């Protein structure tokens, strides 16, 4: 049975925006609110294109807002935002759009996103892939099967894809993904809805639609400097410039959310990640634990560790702090300790640590990170059957014992299923 095509899912695209267009309500992850976005004359600018080989400019916006088709195997645009409706209900939204492939002409596209109802402790999550990405996956599975002849899973999955099916709950799109860079950088998946990025790279619009919601918002950060993760925005595994990484933190969010037939204006605080390169996220043997945290003193913390998925050994760890005054501090002595207890995702049986401790020795900061609620997984077709991507609450203390608190998002990738007990019953003799 073929998976039903749902072309209305996943409209997503970006564009930097000026003061006049910031008045329009709409952004990340949903149907643009009320009024359609119309570019103003200043939007006729073209986003700068980075040099095809050696960079001659630092990592930053606007030059790195758009796609990097040369020298990049994989790249993604990630956002999250905490939202409060005009009646006081609390939500959070997260999404990530991936562009991958060796050839600039044959890129595949993949979108995952989720809306969490923080008051109810529930979430709905989506996994959307275009046909180009499915074709890339077929080639990858064939190579994987030939390298692992004793593993039947790649061939089973390949056979399913060749029949035109995606395993539920994943969905495929019949229409191709449209990526433009002139006059503006934008991406469209599904219906002809567009979210765009303004020429300065600092205001982003996105559309998302789920089974019971549409969301349109604008994420804007006109003043706070971009965080160059690791100090220079380089985070590769083999060498630093294998992977580049930028973040816009404390983004002002405004838009509308329609859920169960009721439309409300929403406001909130968001985060944008921009990553591209060749190493991170490509290797099946590397997983990661990632934390994007807003602390109550106005500073933002991005912390991560890369781990060997077989042994759990930490391969690399780093924390970048952007304080309230815009100063960046990098701490490479970060220690990430998972809790012994686990949350097991019922559909996939993947066991995720249900809490973490982050220690920043140089800063004298110790934080405990706890999920707002346990069930915040998103089904994925890469990196395992699911990742944990959700809202966390943060508490801890500084070196002088003063308390600190915050909230943010946590992403856990590359964890394995827990052992499933054998429940089969033997026949009576």
What does this protein look like?
This protein has 429 residues and is mainly beta. It is built from two helices and 26 strands. It has helices spanning 131-147, 153-162, and strands spanning 15-16, 74-85, 90-100, 108-117, 122-130, 171-173, 178-180, 185-188, 195-198, 203-209, 213-220, 227-228, 243-259, 262-277, 286-295, 300-308, 314-322, 328-331, 335-338, 342-344, 351-353, 356-360, 365-371, 377-379, 386-397, 403-413. A hairpin with a 4-residue loop joins strand 7 and strand 8. The two termini are 40 Å apart. Residues 1-53 and 422-429 have low confidence and may be disordered.
Furnish the topology, listing elements before pairings.
Elements: E1 15-16, E2 74-85, E3 90-100, E4 108-117, E5 122-130, H1 131-147, H2 153-162, E6 171-173, E7 178-180, E8 185-188, E9 195-198, E10 203-209, E11 213-220, E12 227-228, E13 243-259, E14 262-277, E15 286-295, E16 300-308, E17 314-322, E18 328-331, E19 335-338, E20 342-344, E21 351-353, E22 356-360, E23 365-371, E24 377-379, E25 386-397, E26 403-413
Parallel strand pairs: 1-9, 5-6
Antiparallel strand pairs: 2-3, 2-14, 3-4, 4-5, 7-8, 8-9, 10-11, 11-13, 12-13, 13-14, 15-16, 15-26, 16-17, 17-18, 19-22, 20-21, 22-23, 23-25, 24-25, 25-26
């Amino acid at each position: 049975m073929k998976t039903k095509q749902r072309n209305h899912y996943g409209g997503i695209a970006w564009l930097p925006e000026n003061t006049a267009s910031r008045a329009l309500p709409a952004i990340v992850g949903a149907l643009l609110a009320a009024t359609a976005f119309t570019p103003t004359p200043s939007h006729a600018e073209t986003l700068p294109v980075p040099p095809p080989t050696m960079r001659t400019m630092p990592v930053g916006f606007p030059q790195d807002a758009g796609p990097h088709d040369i020298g990049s195997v994989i790249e993604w645009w990630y956002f999250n935002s905490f939202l409060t409706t005009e009646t006081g209900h609390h939500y959070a939204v997260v999404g990530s759009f991936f562009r991958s492939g060796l050839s600039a002409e044959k890129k595949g596209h993949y979108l995952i996103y989720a809306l969490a109802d923080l008051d109810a402790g529930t979430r709905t999550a989506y996994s959307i892939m275009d046909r180009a990405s499915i074709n890339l996956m077929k080639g990858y599975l064939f190579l994987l099967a030939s390298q692992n002849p004793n593993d039947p899973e790649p061939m089973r999955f390949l056979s399913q894809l060749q029949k035109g099916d995606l395993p539920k709950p994943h969905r495929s799109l019949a229409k191709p993904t449209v990526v433009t860079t002139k006059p503006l950088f934008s991406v469209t998946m599904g219906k002809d809805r567009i979210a765009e990025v303004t020429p300065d790279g600092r205001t982003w619009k996105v559309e998302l639609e789920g089974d019971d919601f549409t969301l349109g918002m604008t994420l804007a950060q006109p003043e706070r400097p971009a965080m160059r993760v690791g100090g220079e925005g380089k985070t590769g595994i083999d060498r630093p410039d294998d992977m580049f990484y930028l973040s816009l933190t404390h983004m002002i969010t405004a838009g509308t959310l329609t859920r169960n037939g009721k439309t409300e204006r929403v406001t909130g605080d968001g985060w944008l990640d921009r990553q591209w390169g060749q190493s991170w996220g490509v290797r099946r043997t590397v997983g990661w634990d990632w934390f994007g945290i807003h602390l109550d003193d106005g500073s933002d913390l991005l912390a991560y560790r890369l781990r060997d998925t077989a042994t759990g050994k930490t391969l690399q760890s780093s924390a970048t702090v952007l304080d309230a005054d815009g100063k960046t501090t990098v701490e490479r002595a970060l220690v990430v300790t998972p809790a012994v207890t686990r949350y097991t995702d019922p559909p996939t049986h993947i066991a995720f640590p249900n809490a973490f401790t982050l220690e920043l020795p140089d800063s004298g900061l110790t934080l405990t990170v706890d999920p707002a609620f346990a069930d915040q997984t998103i089904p994925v077709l890469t990196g395992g059957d699911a990742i944990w991507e959700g809202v966390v609450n943060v508490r801890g203390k500084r070196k002088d014992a003063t308390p600190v608190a915050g909230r943010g998002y946590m992403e856990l990738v590359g964890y394995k299923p827990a052992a499933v007990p054998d429940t089969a019953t033997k026949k009576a003799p």
